[in-house]
Amino acid sequence: MGMMQALWSYRGFVLGSVRREFQAKYRNTMLGAAWAILSPLAMIVVYTMIFSQVMKSKLPGDASQYGYSIYLCAGILTWGLFAEILTRAQGMFLENANLLKKVSFPRICLPVIVVLNALNNFAIIFGLFTVFLLLSGQFPGAVFALLVPVIGVMVLLAVGLGLVLGVLNVFFRDVGQFFMIFLQFWFWLTPIVYPTSIVPEEVRAALAMNPLAGPVQACQDILVSGKTPDWGALWPATALAILLCLLGLYLFRRRAGEMVDEL
Amino acid sequence: MGSIVVQHLGKAYKQYPTRWSRLAEWLTPFLGPRHGLKWILQDISFHVAPGEAVGLIGINGAGKSTLLKLITGTTQPTTGGVHIEGRVAALLELGMGFHPDFTGRQNVYMAGQLLGMSADEITALMPEIEAFAEIGDYMDQPVRVYSSGMQMRVAFSVATARRPDVLIVDEALSVGDTYFQHKSFDRIRRFRNQGTTLLIVSHDKQAIQSVCDRAILLDGGRLARSGNPEEIMDYYNALIAERENQNVQQNALDSGKVQTISGTGEARVADIALFDESGARAEVVDVGSDCVLQVTVRVHAPIPRMVLGYMIKDRLGQPMYGTNTHLKELPLQDVAPGEDITYRFRFPMNLGPGTYSVATAIVSTDTHLVNNYEWRDLALVFTVMNMRRPHFEGSAWLDPQIEIARP
After folding, report:
1. CA distances from B402 to A62, B288, B398, B399, B405 (A)
2. Per residue in B384-406, pLDDT tens?
3. Cβ pairs bridging A and B (under 8 Å)
């Protein structure tokens, strides 16, 4: 509770930091904030136009022109959010070592800043993608709103895991190195680029063990076919997310003091 | 009103024999700890009352900065605790969190938010901050074009924009130009007069003696001594000399002051006296009168080169005047045990009314850090009174010839 209060009284610092980080990226450029739109736009164009028009990739069992593009974006954009929170969170204490060692402020601000920054970037790119959906007539309708809880679960999972890794990384720097490698494998072990249906039966059970598979497939279901996701498949991810958040908070509270000595 | 209570505070860093031992300790907590502790601070207890100003001194590595970090809450104590009442401002690392690509003004917001202020509050304080920093148009330039002094001006102005209940200062004031140093020190003094509790770390004797009510000496991670600033500064100076195996002794005098004597003892001051114009030993002398300070040194062991120095200090311990026979190019060569050497220093007593003390030092060069045969604080105390002159203020006698032109 004390943590929440401290966070509230430092909301100016949190929001200021988020704004500043966003501005810092495009500072000293001539186009300024336009770059914040241009690079995600380029990404969306590559995934949608190139795959649908040039490579003519198709989803198995889906003959529509944009099927695969939307499938790819649904996975890759949400994965991007997940991976950004994770990579930033695992390095957040090390990157802010100077600040942590010399200024007294509620440390819980740091993960909050990381999440808000990532959500900010995600909002831009996902906004552009939504515009594409509307323009191409592929907008799934009211079911779109169901993305909110699904993405919420992914964010929670990322925050929990990120907090655990962030604290561990201070004491065991190998954690950060190892996790960057692990993240690559995780990406390919999640049905983002390929649909589960093309995977051999035996492997499918193994893929289902991946806690991220549920939320990613839920996003794909909503965006590609406008289906209500299979909520049952989200339970493992949700439970794990809550568990990791609790573990993260426990580690953080217990080790926050010792952490400063290690930086 | 702010106060600081420090109780049995201790700080130790964990030291693991190998990188793997920490992992082993974390994974098997029931097998007991696998680390050793390196104590930086041990059993520190003191209290700073509301409105009090306390100076913290100690040689490098004595644990001063660690203590301040524990007090401000940046690091967690290993034992004991700190209790602070009131709003704290710490001038520990000025300019932390400044982003070089943002303007001074934007960084003021950042720094203010890091101190827990809201944007509205900072906006309200901005004119005041700008006026105090005095960097003009640079305020809207990116910080990367600032000189370090300018950065420090902005940082200090933000950190002290609001008067805190407790102000903690770590030698931050030694940066910046003389003008700004004075200005910032004035601000600290003004806060103090308005009731801010002050904890200040400095090696600057003047700074400690002019603002602090009390001083605390840290030595080797422990609280070595606490008392009035003059006494502690004297002890501290003696302690620096003691690093070469000399002994330090402090005696309480009848006046309630504490005399510090240190040194290796090859020669000692056997007698010291002040003589007035009539040639009589005097404890009270007149402003502007001709006086003689006579110091007799007894030699106990052969000394190749002997220098005698003295310093006249005011009641607060601030130096008024000091010199020695090295500076005056009158060192003695090869003095032998058993010799009694008498020095007579003749000078006009151009000091204002008040009580003064004389400290003596018998050394080999012009500092007591090479060979300190004897260092004696409060060797003599005398009073200057104004008996013949019209009333004047201050501790120096700078009587002017006045010419007035009136058309």
Report:
1. 106, 18, 12, 9, 10
2. 998 888 899 888 999 999 999 99
3. 66
Classify the C-alpha dihedral B23-B27-B33-B34 as positive or negative: negative
Q: Does A101 contact B74 at a Cβ distance shorter than 8 Å?
A: yes
Question: How confident is the model over A213-248, as pLDDT tens digits?
Answer: 889 999 998 988 888 888 888 888 999 999 999 999
Q: Which pLDDT tens digit goes with each residue over B213-248? A: 899 988 888 888 888 888 888 888 777 766 655 566
Q: Give the residue with greater pLDDT, A56 vs B380.
A: B380
Contact B93 A102 (CB under 8 A): yes
pLDDT, one tens digit per residue, over B9-27 is: 888 888 888 888 888 888 8
Distances (CA, A) of A11 to A17, A103, A253, B119: 10, 16, 20, 10
Nearest to B118 among A12, A17, A102 (CB): A12
**Count of residues making up chain B:** 407
Q: Right CATH number for B254-385 from 3.30.360.10, 2.60.40.1120, 3.40.50.300, 2.70.50.60? A: 2.70.50.60
Whole-number Å distance between alpha carbons of B287 and B294: 19
**What pairing do the DSSP bridges indicate for beta strands B267-275 and B290-299?**
antiparallel
Instruction: Give this prediction's pTM.
Output: 0.73
* Dihedral angle over CA of A229, A230, A236, A240, nearest 10: 20
* Residue B253 dihedral angles phi and psi, to the nearest 5°: -90, 170
Helix (H) or strand (E) holding A17: helix A11-26
Q: Which CATH class is domain B3-87+204-227?
A: alpha beta
